[in-house]
Design brief:
Helix content of chain C: 25-40%
Radius of gyration of chain A: 33 Å
CATH topology of one domain in chain C: Alpha-Beta Plaits
Oligomer: heterotrimer
CATH architecture of the largest domain in chain A: 3-Layer(aba) Sandwich
Distance between the termini of chain A: 95 Å
CATH class of the largest domain in chain A: Alpha Beta
Number of helices of chain A: 17
Chains: A alpha+beta, B mainly alpha, C alpha+beta
Strand order of the largest sheet of chain A: 15-14-18-16-17
Largest interface: A-B, 74 and 49 residues
Structural class of chain A: alpha+beta
Largest sheet of chain C: 2 strands, antiparallel
Helix content of chain A: 25-40%
Radius of gyration of chain C: 25 Å
Shape of chain C: elongated
Order of helices and strands of chain C: HHHHEHEEEHE
CATH superfamily of the largest domain in chain A: NADH-ubiquinone oxidoreductase 51kDa subunit
């Protein structure tokens, strides 16, 4: 149910004062944000080698634009492909995943299997780019703001795709696909909530690059033909709100109305569906998208990337990453080119690598641990936390669930986390599915409030993967059963036909003179018309002419020998026992 | 070497032991009131019950090979003993308390799997066992101290509980004699017996046992439990739905029946502030493990308890019915849960969604 | 009087039950369908029955519940629960959690004899006499019945899922087990 929050009741019609609602549940964890006056670090030294994965964390494959053969070590040593900064180095043949660009100029020296940023730490093949001291961009097709607003929307969307832009809020969904919706959109919402503790990269962007964000917002609005832009910012970021409002007053455009709305700080108000409920009071119906309500939600960093791509012509090659935690002497937001190994970033931030125990990629509530420091930073990484033991202690004592119901009060999707927990524990996947397990956004609010300290989010991730497996198995089993039944029916039909034919022949033979033995023998050989064995063996082929056939003949001979040897072995043992058994 | 932790890495301050401690703290004013009005027996019973609960829990955990210290410290055994000590009569013999507590801990809690797995409220299971098995001792309630002919000292209470006689040789039956010489029962018991005998409520209320506003002593005790309960709701240890729906239903039905026949039924005030109503509403019915968990389910659960309490008190055979009502509704709790699941985000009916999208498209056109 | 009332009630309820027995009669034995739904449909014959449905019918007659090898521990427990019998231990050489596998025909060695096509219980191999055979991996159930009949030994077993698809999150017990050290994190390959 949507409730009106009394602080923000609208009385006038300015675009900033709109009625604010609230979503069910939510929690207030400690914020631990980097102070707003710490500037962002743009002078990060370029890493010696950049690692660019060819398989995304969702399992999508990209094909490298260069043919790299690593079959022999000598070949691997010789690979030297020069690339310029911003050059396309890998693409998706299906056209779904936007292309990958070189974040720096240098030479590609091969492909290595490096631990990816997937929670499993699985190694995926990555292009290794050795950076050179001099950096050179490819030609950048820049354009003016007015030109961008005059170009057709499809061109803009195509350019966004070519620039490799994906959602930079963490989900990394291709932006161009989101923008290509056929539904009528009337409002673009920019998600500046950044509700998770520690993360402050969007905050920094809004303070430093406010004009770029506003221009990017207008370009996005133009791409979907929206007439309103609403930028939602939590009230713990007053400097960002001020900066955007100031730039808006100096921004001369009349095509869209830009509203900058302050929303109360609550976790997880930055979730797309929760943000929509806060700003409009409506819930996105199950199975539908925000576009069905005429809304599109984009992250602030994505908007700035769109500005870079369209106006400056620069593809997406770097992003702001919040580096925080007690083990970091100076927490700050760093501008990190993609492919930078985490180890390099931590060393540059003066972290003592011997003393760290955990590195978390993402926020503390929804992020996952890195298993290797060689993992490169890619598009979906918005934060790196290196905490001390005291800062994020893990409660080691989990008690039984006391059914207090605090979790269902905290759930922003209004689920029953307790029931989902019981079913996940008992491995009853159908029941968990009926309780809407797949609507869970894995925000962690339920585990936060649980007095028994049960790792609820882990249970749901486990349950989701097992439910998907079970459904897939059930479909496959169903298919297998149908195929088997069809095959049985077919074989039965063939048997029936044979029996029928035999009966007919017997009847016909009885009516003629007795010579019935030979026609029956011919019937037995009359199998070639059916799919039954035709018993072709290599002995039918011309001996000794074709090397392939010779190889096949050799293989068959090998197998025959193997079988003979096995049979002989089996016979020897009974022979021996019969020898000992025979006692005269 | 890096290690891996689980989301979310932040946790609130809620702890099971903290919730149990807050519960006990909220019941302390009621405990003091009850001791003040009904003698030292109350405190002795409570302490004895807690000790027995802890010992029986240690024994069972040892048999089950479970970690002893961490389980003891989650406080649930202490709460069970505490509530049972308050629920049992203050002069009940020690073996009644012993039986009730050990049965509650072993059979009603640990045999089902321990904390979090019991379908029935353990304290109430223990109470019902001794109530049905030993009706004589369980109906031997001591009236308020200033009504007593022979008020009890601390040593007297100890002697009565463990020896069934005081030093002076008085038995429990003797002790229940009031100043005017009659054997006194609880207010609810008195009303029930006398209404059955044909007396009118206004006459019954003239008796000495009905003092302040709902039975001498009982009214103030219940008031203390009410305040403790509200404290628990503010602290978010319990949810407001169960106590308020229970009390509301009880109030509603008692008001209806009193309007029909003002002198033939117990008055609403007496229903709410006499007997174990308030402690039942805030401390017993709200036991999270055995109660319903969904928001709407909790309201139905409370309504069910209120209805059953009223029916049993008015038409049934027992003067006070909290234990039976709670146990009967515990049986229904899983069914209630199944049929009262909340509508999750995005699960509106089609009509509402069509209306919302129409409103949106109209806005965008204008 | 009471006897009379009970007699009447008995007659009424008896009539109702008889009516229900005829009107709501279920054809066939629904137990066999339910058991068949629990089995993995590999049609491999390792249970010594020619397919999953015959084993389901045998189970309905009271056969042992621990014969299904691809189903593993999970299927055995579900069957035992449905039939109301005790779960029995699987044979020691069988895995409790079998790894799903598929088969793959090495085409250079295939001679087009169609023996594997006949052996496959679910028609997952496509081909014809003296033509190339190949496995439709989407249909293959991993029963491995084609492998012993191949005269050139050209069919090999490959894992059903590789890479990221093979990983799945583990079941948490409590936060203590969630704190896992780098070297000892088990990667689930099924």
């Amino acid at each position: 149910m949507a409730l009106k929050s009394s602080n923000y009741r609208t009385t006038d019609n300015t675009p900033d004062q709109i009625p604010i609602y609230t979503f069910h549940g939510g929690i207030h964890p400690p914020q631990n944000k980097i102070p707003a006056n710490v500037p962002s670090q743009h002078n990060l030294k370029l890493a010696e080698k950049l690692y660019l994965p060819l398989i995304t964390t969702k399992g999508q494959k990209l094909t490298s634009k260069f043919s790299i053969s690593m079959e022999t070590p000598e070949q691997a040593q010789k690979i030297r492909i020069p690339v310029q900064k911003g050059q396309v180095i890998a693409e998706d043949p299906n056209g779904f995943v936007p292309p990958l660009h070189a974040p720096a100029s240098g030479t590609i020296i091969g492909i290595e299997n490096v631990s990816s940023s997937h929670p499993s730490g699985i190694s995926v093949p990555m292009l290794v780019l050795k950076t050179s001291p001099e950096q050179q961009w490819v030609d950048l097709p820049s354009m003016k703001f007015e030109e961008a607003l005059a170009s057709p929307a499809s061109d803009i969307i195509q350019k966004i795709f070519q620039a490799g832009i994906v959602g930079l809020g963490g989900a990394a969904f291709p932006t161009s696909i989101k923008l290509s919706t056929k539904k009528p959109i009337h409002q673009l919402i920019l998600n500046g909530a950044e509700c998770e503790p520690y993360i402050s990269c969007d905050d920094r962007l809004m303070q430093d690059k406010a004009m770029e964000i506003l221009q990017g917002a207008c370009i996005l609005a133009h791409a979907v033909s929206a007439t309103e832009v609403v930028i939602a910012i939590e009230d713990n970021k007053p400097e960002a709100i001020q900066s955007l409002k100031k730039q808006r007053s100096e921004f001369n455009q009349t095509k869209v109305t830009i509203g900058i709305v302050t929303i109360p700080t609550k976790y997880p108000s930055g979730g797309e569906k929760q943000l929509i409920e806060i700003l409009t009071g409506q819930q996105v119906p199950r199975g539908k998208l925000p576009a069905d309500l005429g809304l599109i939600v984009q992250n602030i960093a994505t908007t700035k990337a769109v500005y870079d791509a369209i106006i400056e012509g620069k593809p997406l090659i770097d992003r702001l990453v919040s580096l925080c935690g007690d083990k970091i002497p100076q927490s700050a937001n760093y501008l990190v080119p993609f492919g930078t190994p985490v180890r390099h970033l931590l060393t540059e931030a003066q972290v003592n690598l011997q003393q760290i125990k955990q590195v978390i990629m993402g926020g503390p509530m929804m992020g996952h641990n890195l298993l290797s420091l060689k993992t490169p930073i890619m598009k979906s990484c918005n934060c790196l936390i290196v905490p001390s033991e005291k800062e994020l202690p893990n409660p080691l004592n989990t008690l039984a669930c006391i059914r207090c119901g605090l979790c269902s009060e905290a759930c922003p999707v209004d689920l029953l986390p307790q029931q989902l927990y019981w079913h996940a524990k008992a491995e009853e996947w159908e029941k968990a599915d009926k309780l809407n397990l797949f609507d869970c956004i894995e925000c962690g609010a339920c585990a936060y409030v649980c007095p028994s300290k049960i790792p609820l989010v882990d249970y749901y991730r486990f349950a989701k993967s097992k439910t998907i497996d079970q459904k897939a198995d059930a479909i496959k089993g169903q298919k297998a059963r149908i195929h088997h039944e069809k095959k049985q029916a077919r074989l039965d039909q063939i048997e029936n036909e044979k029996a029928q034919r035999r009966k007919d022949r017997a009847v016909a033979a009885k009516q003629r003179q007795p010579q019935s033995a030979q026609p029956e023998k011919q019937d037995n050989k009359d199998n070639s018309q059916t799919l039954l064995a035709s018993n072709t063996t290599a002995s039918d082929a011309n001996p000794g002419v074709d090397p392939k056939k010779q190889a096949i003949a050799d293989a068959i001979e090998r197998v025959r020998q193997k079988k003979l040897a096995k049979a002989h072995l089996e016979q020897q043992i009974p022979e021996k026992t019969s020898e000992t058994g025979e006692t005269p | 070497m890096l290690y891996k932790t689980s989301a979310p890495r932040f946790f609130s301050e809620n702890r099971v032991s903290g919730m149990m401690l807050t519960l006990i703290a909220a019941a302390i004013p009621g405990l003091f009131a009850q001791t003040y009005f009904f003698g030292w027996g109350v405190l002795i019973q409570v302490i004895f019950a807690i000790i027995v609960a802890l010992i029986s829990e240690v024994l069972v955990l040892f048999l089950r090979n479970k970690p002893i210290i961490s389980t003891l410290f989650d406080g649930s055994a202490i709460v069970t003993g505490f509530l049972l000590g308050l629920a049992l009569p203050s002069v009940a013999p020690w073996w009644i308390t012993f039986t009730a507590v050990t049965f509650a801990m072993i059979f009603a809690k640990h045999l089902y799997g321990g904390l979090g797995y019991n379908p029935f409220n353990p304290a109430m299971v223990g109470y019902v066992l001794v109530l049905i098995s030993f009706p004589l001792q369980m109906t031997a309630w001591l009236p308020a101290t200033d009504l007593l002919l022979h008020p009890l000292t601390f040593m007297d209470s100890l002697a009565v509980i463990f020896n069934q006689h005081t030093a002076n040789g008085f038995s429990v039956a003797n002790l229940r004699t009031g100043i005017d010489g009659y054997t006194l029962a609880t207010p609810l018991d008195t009303i029930k017996t006398d209404l059955n005998n044909g007396f009118m409520l206004s006459e019954i209320l003239q008796k000495s046992i009905f003092g302040d506003f709902a039975g001498k002593g009982w009214g103030l005790v219940n008031l203390c439990y009410l305040l403790g309960g509200i404290f628990l709701i503010i602290k978010k240890v319990i949810n407001w739905r169960i106590p308020f729906s229970f009390l509301g239903t009880l109030l509603l039905f008692s008001v209806i029946f009193t309007l029909i026949n003002p002198n033939g039924y117990t008055s609403p005030i007496l229903h709410l502030f006499s007997g174990a109503t308030m402690i039942g509403a805030f401390f017993i019915a709200t036991d999270p493990v055995s109660a319903s968990t969904t928001p709407r389910g909790r309201i139905y659960f409370g309504i069910g308890i209120g209805l059953l309490v009223f029916v049993i008190r008015t038409f049934g055979g027992y003067p006070d019915a909290i234990a039976f009502a709670v146990l009967l509704m515990n049986m229904c709790a899983p069914t209630i849960d199944q049929y009262t699941q909340p509508k999750i985000y995005g699960q509106r009916t089609n009509a509402q969604w069509d209306l919302a999208t129409k409103a949106n498209s109209m806005e965008s056109k204008s | 009087m009471a006897i009379f009332i009970l007699l009447i009630l008995g007659l009424i309820f008896g009539a109702l039950l008889g009516f229900a027995a005829i009107r709501f009669k279920v054809e066939g034995n629904p137990l066999v369908e339910q058991l068949d739904a629990l089995l993995p449909q590999t049609q491999c014959g390792q249970c010594q029955y020619p397919g999953c449905k015959p084993y389901a019918e045998a189970l309905a007659q009271g056969d042992a519940v621990n014969k299904c090898v691809p189903g593993g521990q999970e299927t055995m427990e579900k069957i035992a629960e449905l039939l109301g019998v005790d779960p029995e231990p699987l044979a020691p050489e069988n895995d409790a959690i079998p790894v799903p596998t598929l088969v793959f025909i090495r085409e250079p060695d295939c001679i087009g004899c169609t023996k594997c096509i006949q052996a496959c219980p679910v028609d997952a191999i496509v081909g014809a006499a003296k033509h190339m055979h190949t496995v439709i991996q989407a249909d293959c159930t991993g029963c491995n019945l084609c492998i012993p009949v191949c005269p050139t030994d050209c069919i090999e077993i490959v894992p059903a899922k590789t890479g990221l698809a093979a990983w799945s999150p583990t079941k948490p017990e409590n936060f203590a087990t969630s704190v896992q050290y780098l070297q000892r994190i088990p990667i689930q390959w099924h």
